[in-house]
């Protein structure tokens, strides 16, 4: 921090609250202050620093600088496990729908704000485990084998995201 401070007679002190004085050159006073990542919670905070100049007659003047500190999260959530209740789905003309459950374990250094699987329905959340279900329907597939890539996405409140995929093999028979 630098302040240009003058007086019509002479200065006896120039102070900046919470900062460490470094030097003065031609009425330019310089201070430093360290801000450490671990000293703050996530979000925005204001640090108010007050500059006080005192002259040799004990007259004083103050000015306050409000410094905004933003601590953001740039770490994506971690998906440590992504599994399904079935990896092979067999569809028949007599058994046209198979329900598959998906289990995602997702954590974050702050908090997970959402987990999604495209085309699947959210069922529940217990601690860091998210459960989804998806119906595989006979009419949506051609005869033979089709490999479906299913992707889970975990997002945090700062918009960081990570994904994990697994394959479900769908066999359609007559």
- What spatial form do the alpha-carbon principal axes imply? rod-shaped
What's the SSE pattern?
Answer: EEEEEEEEEEEEEE
Q: Looking at the chains present, what oligomeric state does this protein adopt?
A: single chain
Major β-sheet annotation: 4 strands, antiparallel
Classification by helices and strands: mainly beta
Low-confidence regions:
none
**% residues in beta strands:** over 45%
Give the neighbour order of strands across the main sheet.
7-9-12-11
Radius of gyration: 31 Å
Separation, N- and C-terminal Cα atoms: 78 Å
Give the averaged pLDDT, no decimals.
96
What does this structure look like?
It is built from no helices and 14 strands. The protein is mainly beta. Strands 7-9-12-11 form a four-stranded antiparallel sheet, with no helix packed on it. Strands 8-14-13-10 form a four-stranded mixed sheet, with no helix packed on it. It starts with a strand and ends with a strand.
Outline the fold blueprint.
Elements: E1 2-4, E2 11-16, E3 20-25, E4 28-32, E5 43-55, E6 60-71, E7 78-84, E8 88-91, E9 97-107, E10 112-117, E11 121-126, E12 129-137, E13 144-156, E14 161-172
Parallel strand pairs: 8-14
Antiparallel strand pairs: 1-4, 2-5, 3-4, 5-6, 7-9, 9-12, 10-13, 11-12, 13-14
Concise account of the structure shown:
This protein is mainly β and 174 residues long. The protein has strands spanning 2-4, 11-16, 20-25, 28-32, 43-55, 60-71, 78-84, 88-91, 97-107, 112-117, 121-126, 129-137, 144-156, 161-172.
């Amino acid at each position: 921090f630098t302040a240009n401070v003058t007086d019509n007679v002479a200065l006896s002190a120039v102070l900046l609250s919470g900062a460490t004085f470094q030097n003065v050159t031609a009425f330019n006073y310089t201070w430093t202050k360290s801000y450490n990542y671990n000293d703050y919670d996530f979000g925005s905070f204001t640090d108010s620093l007050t500059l006080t100049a005192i002259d040799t007659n004990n007259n004083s003047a103050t000015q306050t600088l409000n410094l905004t500190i933003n601590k953001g999260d740039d770490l994506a959530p971690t998906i440590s496990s992504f599994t399904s209740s079935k990896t092979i789905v067999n569809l028949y003309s007599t058994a046209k729908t198979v329900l598959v459950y998906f289990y995602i374990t997702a954590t974050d250094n702050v908090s997970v704000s959402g987990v999604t699987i495209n085309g699947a329905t959210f069922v529940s959340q217990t601690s860091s485990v998210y459960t989804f279900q998806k119906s595989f329907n006979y009419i949506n597939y051609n005869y033979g084998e089709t490999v479906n890539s299913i992707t889970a996405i975990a997002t945090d409140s700062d918009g960081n995201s990570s994904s994990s995929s697994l394959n479900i093999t769908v066999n359609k028979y007559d």
